Amino acid sequence: MFSTLETLILKYLALVDVPSPVCMKSLRTLHLDCVNFKHNESFSNLISGCPNLEDLFMYQYYPLDVVMNFIIVAPSLKRLVIIDYREAGGYVINAPTLKYLKIKGLSHCGFCLIENAPVLVEAKIRNLFYIYKEKILGSLKSAKRLSLDLSPLECPIDSIFYQLVHLEIYTCKEEWWNLLKLMLDSSPKLQVLKLIGKNLDFKKVGMVGGKWNEPKNVPECLLSQLKMFVWTSYHWESEVEKEVATYILKNARQLKNVSFSTRPIHSKEHNKLEEKCKMLKELDGVVRASSSCHLVFIE
């Protein structure tokens, strides 16, 4: 019945029971959207019966009655997306051919343990606060592209990302700049850096706490590799963001292209226009380490 099935999408199912391993050798893509399994073995039996599975998408929004922890052992898996807003439970991942990983959620008591992903190329990790047994970033050291929205206080780094060339960091978590410093120090081949903020009124939102302190030594990637620096939703009113931007401009010797996008000034805020122009002019006047650096401002 399922021998030729290549794609399977299951949605909003309660107490799915898979008492023994299934046989779906042709299955390549599996979507599980709010699926509640009867017990942990049911999920394991489903995954183990798909030896050629390449794409797995898991979405969990509501508390599950039974299964709390999903153990994903998939030797052929290449792409894994996990979006989970439950208040507990987590994932153990063993996928030796995994190339792409996206994890979003697990922001309460959830966990994620990556046991085996040696050929990972790209990973996007957002709102993952609780680290289980190992430092999750250390499991991503083979990645060439990383997108991170994490608290630096809970993600110490003890690995070198020798393959990383493209890094995105969201600037919404408290002291996000400490994560930036750690990643710059740990990524000697980094060529593209993108910082992503929220396009909100700075005066209403306020600035996350903490203070920027320059690294004692300039990271290797700034001295010899970084070529592109992009900052979206740059808060020109933030002193910390100004200091971070200035530091990179002053120390990145190989920079070619730099762009800052800012929140537009609305008609009711015309009094801010002069202040904004002054701040951006000061940033544009920073003496750059790279003589060939081209800087643009975008609204």
UniProtKB/TrEMBL annotation:
Record field: transmembrane: none
Pfam families attached to this UniProt entry: FBD, LRR_2
InterPro entries membership: FBD, FBL13/AtMIF1-like, LRR_dom_sf, LRR_PRU1-like
Sequence ranges assigned to domain FBD in this UniProt record: 220-298
Name of the protein in question: FBD domain-containing protein
Organism expressing this protein natively: Arabidopsis thaliana
